[in-house]
Amino acid sequence: MVEKPCSKITINDVDEPLEFAAQSPTLLHTLEAANIDVQYQCREGFCGACRAQLNDGKIAYIQEPLAFVREGEVLLCCSRPLTDIKITLL
């Protein structure tokens, strides 16, 4: 079985892109594992505290968020990248 390549996550103010491993449940988990400070509260898409600007790429929600998400934004706690992405932490 061929393993799917990891998506790259490029973040403003972070020198090196991160790899999103297939076993990581969400973008928030990947950022936390890399010791990147991210605002969050609920971890389930209810509050919107983990909102980030999606500058490039595509994501998928593992569960549809209940918090309002503007065009061009993403909630890190309940999403995974489908492609390489570029984000700005808000």
From TrEMBL:
GO molecular function, a single term: 2 iron, 2 sulfur cluster binding
- Show the stretches that span the lipid bilayer: none
Looking up InterPro entries in the UniProt record yields: 2Fe-2S_ferredoxin-like_sf, 2Fe-2S_ferredoxin-type, 2Fe2S_fd_BS, Benzoxazolinone_Detox_Enz, Beta-grasp_dom_sf
> Which SUPFAM superfamilies does this entry report, sorted A to Z?
2Fe-2S ferredoxin-like
Which parts of the sequence belong to the 2Fe-2S ferredoxin-type domain? 7-90
Q: Write down a Pfam family by its short name.
A: Fer2
Q: Which UniProt keywords apply?
A: Ubiquinone
Name of the molecule in the record? Ferredoxin
